[in-house]
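My current task is to audit a protein record that another person submitted. I have pasted the whole thing underneath without changing anything:
***
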Amino acid sequence: MLYDLLGGMAGEYPALNVFRYITFRTGGATLTALLISFLFGPRIIALLKSRQRRGQPIREDGPQTHIVQKQGTPTMGGFLILVGLVPAVLLWADLSNKYVWIVLLVTLGFGAVGFADDYLKVSKISPKGVPGRVKLFFEFIIAIAAMWALVLVANEPLQTALTVPFFKGVLLQLGGFFFVFGALVIVGSSNAVNLTDGLDGLAIVPVMIAAAAFGLIVYLVGNAVFADYLQVHFVPGTGELAIVCGALIGAGLGFLWYNAPPAMVFMGDTGSLALGAALGVIAVAAKHELVLAIIGGLFVLEAVSVIVQVVSFKLTGKRVFRMAPLHHHFEQKGWAEPTIVVRFWIISVVLAMAGLATLKLR
């Protein structure tokens, strides 16, 4: 909005030229989302508490400490993230950019699926919300629609192509399978973040770290000069997604203020599904799908731990981990919650650095 209103007046008022710069508008989006979260956070949390008398239902088969320590904490805190994210993007982004709208709509779509799940859990006072198959059905519908839109927006030869990290000239043309692959990336990223969201502050900081890394990636691949220098594929228009990443970081910081141990509010599926999907669709748009598996490696580990646990128990009757996802395994080993959270943050930083290294190691 400001890009159109003020950036267009730069010829008459040179000082307004700053509104044309992606870096300036990214900073503006970050601060705007943060301020909105601080302004409305207490009111939203108070509203959630008044509507959720018993808070988020706690799994009886989960860590017993959670039943004592986390009982009564309201969920759907992801709504606070979206309240900060969406207005900040609409205010600072170039609204004629189709990538911005695709990412926003996917984020809101997955947020709606998560909201339905959280609502059923709270209303029925049960950790069981929307059946898994139903959630996946709607998630794939949204993801496939997003892939269709991304292919229409992208230029040849990148429309249905997969780039490979470390190899500057490799393009794997997937054809129609690219729709399935991209949808799997978006849905997989969404649910991996959802599985990671099990301890206070555990999911939101790695999400912000990944958003920061992808904010840099989309800025570089969306700039012809930088893309040529780094020998990465130039994807016109994706630089504007840096504003989305900045808004995500600002909204995430605002949410962390209230989610820091002991949490005043939980993210819930409303936030985790939305944020994971946002990272997934940004990665697909920037043609860095495989790099997402590196930068978001913590989410991958959490998801794999659940898969391994389920497969092992069904085939052998034995569990590989004391409890899945992985963070619960370390809880059962006696690690304190803050220890797990901070160490997982450190892992996320290292993985983000490794992912960013792929930009130059070609």
